[in-house]
User: What shape does this take?
Amino acid sequence: MQSSNPVLNRLGQAAGQGRSQVQPPPSFGAPTGYGYPQSGYGVPPQAGATRAMTIDDVVTRTVGLLFVTGIFGAAAWTLLPDTGAVTGIALFGSLIAGLVLGLVISFTQVTNPAVIIPYAALQGVLLGVVSRWYEHAFNGIVIQAVIGTFGIFAIMAVLYKLQILRATPRFTKMVIGALVGVVVLSLANFIFYLFGLNLGLRDYGTEGKVGWLPIVFSLVIIVVAALTFVLDFDAVEQGVRQGLPEKFAWYCAFGILVGLIFLYWEILRMLSYLRR
Assistant: This one.
């Protein structure tokens, strides 16, 4: 179950561990020997078994996490001052805590909403503070980035549903390779920037003209980020098909939230380039 999203890419490992915990559907009169006990009247469910995850479970939890992110983003936008120690603490605190919590959830496959929901809240605070800064510099840019993010996500969902785009092995290798490439180039550009150099792929200011290279590079990242949703949809679909327990719907929703936030940041950056 390959996905460019490092969170959802670990679902394949979870599937093997989780299938044994899922309560199989009743099969009245089905013969034994298929991994299920004889089902029928008077046969109690297996001890400790849970319901299998569905697409609806993933959708509802994704919407819930987006709601939490939006609420905390709006609160940070309206309640925190434009400058000052409190805003600085909220900015860097949410950035560091969100990064650490995100890595913990991803690599330990946390499925507990008590851990995943705080991550969404931290991302909301970070989004609220930084988005307000962009809005002050470029009026109306935030709502444009939000519409662009969900518009692209909806388009990719439709293309996947209609089977116009499918996560074939070749497609998967191309998208993952492109994603690794743009991430490495972005990190290299930032490291050079810290030492007083700039490869020209990124512009970290808010004033002055922007050349064509940062705009093209940002557009490439947006295209790659959009294509990764195809791999994510496929990973979730396979997780449902392989019978992951219901609790993994939280893990899938967390992975999709990570992808949406990544896409939003890049659209916001490109729009700021175009405004300049």
Remarks:
- The chain is about 70% helix and 0% strand.
- Helices lie at 11-18, 55-79, 85-108, 113-137, 141-161, 169-194, 212-241, 248-275.
- Confidence is low (pLDDT under 50) at residues 24-45.
